[in-house]
Amino acid sequence: MKKFIVLTLFISSLLGSAVEIEKGIYKTILKALFPTKKVIKVWSDDPSKKDLFESIPGIKVVNEKKIADILMLFNTLNVQRNSNQMIFANGYLILQRNKGVVVGGFYWQKGRPNLIFIKNRLEKVGIVLPTNLQKYIEDIK
Hints:
- The chain has a single domain, classed as 3-Layer(aba) Sandwich (Rossmann fold), CATH 3.40.50.
- The chain is built from 4 helices and 7 strands.
- It has helices at residues 2-33, 50-54, 92-97, 119-124; strands spanning 40-44, 59-61, 70-73, 86-89, 102-109, 112-118, 137-138.
């Protein structure tokens, strides 16, 4: 019984730290993409991510795509957007299917976070990433 409790606590701490890591990565991504915005409006196709985004200071989760600054795609392969909205992929397949419109992607692969920003999309929307994120820029055609 004692081993079970210790194992449960250990697993809980690992899961909790993964959520904190994910939260920190999203905070860094969003602040880099919108450096001058005080409140960033985020729409996500995954309702389970709502609490994660709402826990980030300066982020407001919206229910309507049309009023969002950025669309975070976890499940949707193709999405309609306004010309002034950014799309960020949260899965490799979504990133590959939407190369022409996404500014980047963040997804977990083999238990590790992967972060990619697409050079020509960043240039098209006039975003210069901070130095600490420059190494994640890739020239994907």
